[in-house]
Amino acid sequence: MDADAIVVGAGLAGLVATAELADAGRRVLLVDQEGAANIGGQAFWSFGGLFLVDSPEQRRMGVRDSLELAWQDWEGTAGFDREREDHWPRRWAREYVEFAAGEKRAWLRSLGMRFFPVVGWAERGGHGATGPGNSVPRFHIVWGTGPGIVEPFARKVRDAVDRGLVTLALRHQVDHLLMTDGAVDGVAGTVLEPSRAARGVPSSRTATGDFELRAPAVVLTSGGIGADPELVRRHWPERLGTPPAKMLTGVPAYVDGRMLDISADAGASLVNRDRMWHYTEGITNFAPVWPAHGIRILPGPSSLWLDATGRRLPVPLYPGFDTLGTLAHLRATGHDHSWFVLTQRIIEKEFALSGSEQNPDLTGKDLRLLAQRVRPGAPGPVEAFKERGVDFVVADTLDDLVSGMNRLTEAPLLEIDQVAREVVARDREIDNPFSKDLQITALRGARSYLGDKLVRVAPPHRLLDPAAGPLIAVKLHVLTRKTLGGIETDLDARVLRPDGSVLPGLYAAGEAAGFGGGGMHGYRALEGTFLGGCLFSGRQAGRAAVANR
């Protein structure tokens, strides 16, 4: 044997699993097809939001949360309905929510992580009490965003390398799992030529040789399929209609899903592959790092959301409320894009861009930059997209705005009378302290939460109020992101065969395992649960592989 364990994938889940193994004194081979620049994987690029329940940060903001309320929200969001394929995902989900309400925060703080004091309220739902969405704010942003989450575990791995416990086998692309007497005991594949490509930039796939590595435990933490639009289309669920002809990509090119079919070839059970999480608020990155690079807008609740023909989206499909419901509705329109219509006053308060790169104040732990969030004007990265992004239109009048919007599409789909009808009707409702418009009721309710009032929700105003201008329109695209199904595992992260038996020697965690069990999020996900799923499942897999149980 070359090591006590092999971990395939150097993203967040892989780093956590490797750190757990090394902490127990095990020798680990950490294998990845990319170079050292990409250690940390997709987590490095993230906004760094984590799902916590009944935290001190929530309580300081006046939020009352509980395990029971969080589990109610999770079940209502996940919509588990498959007797066979949801057995382990449901159990993983319950374990994870208990973790988020229990030791998760203390564990992360022991590693040096700290949290931004204002808790965000993403994926609000807008349905009934048992429907999807968070009943209370739970989106805890780590001070340092994605890099701040990756660094403690990357540091543990580097220290273990120095102690001779961890060996990095980078630029090693796994093509097969090796088996002896029905148990997985190694990996084999292609050694790729060295690459100097920067983080996230596609790297060479030129082969320089082959490799074969053996260990009694193999942990797969190789990610999902979000960078391969053809794979996304292949597994696109019928319930969401036809897949978009044009999509932006929210993850680097190496998120290719290769290990999913490779694990299936070795006998692993893959479940819930038609469950995926793509955003409807994607915008084209004016400075792309990877092909079709898109950024997600994390919107506040005030923008008017119109489909490609200028019709307002129905209740409760407001910005930041129900991602999957919005995606299903927009796919039924027959068009691949939609629109936000808003004002300068709204963009200054309500637009956040998801990603470490687009939040230099939080990522760099820069208090001077952070102070700009409560001052007049949009954050610098948001203003840069407004000025340079191809999906933004700015105008002083509604006529000019609609003309500019039509110039961004192959055919002029918008009529000024239709857009004006929606805008003026909405403005009439906001002129009164009473309203039948549930979006206006929702945004007024949002401002009753101190965090939203301080940094997230603009004071209600008319879109056509000149003092709030100029008018802004944003063309929105589907943005690929997360794979919610994957390799089926038990609560020890042991990979299962299609008949439910354990495939000896093989473990899976992170997005490759649907963040646990083969899909612990069900059909929908509560924001802040992807990184947390990598942390939890990576820890479970590492601890189980220590004993190879």
From TrEMBL:
GO molecular function: steroid dehydrogenase activity, acting on the CH-CH group of donors
Entry annotated with the keyword Oxidoreductase: yes
InterPro entries in the record: FAD-dep_OxRdtase_2_FAD-bd, FAD/NAD-bd_sf, KsdD_DH, Succ_DH/fumarate_Rdtase_cat_sf
Membrane-spanning parts: none
Keyword Oxidoreductase assigned: yes
Keyword tags: Flavoprotein, Oxidoreductase
Segments forming domain FAD-dependent oxidoreductase 2 FAD-binding: 4-531
Pfam (any one): FAD_binding_2
Name the record gives this protein: FAD-binding dehydrogenase
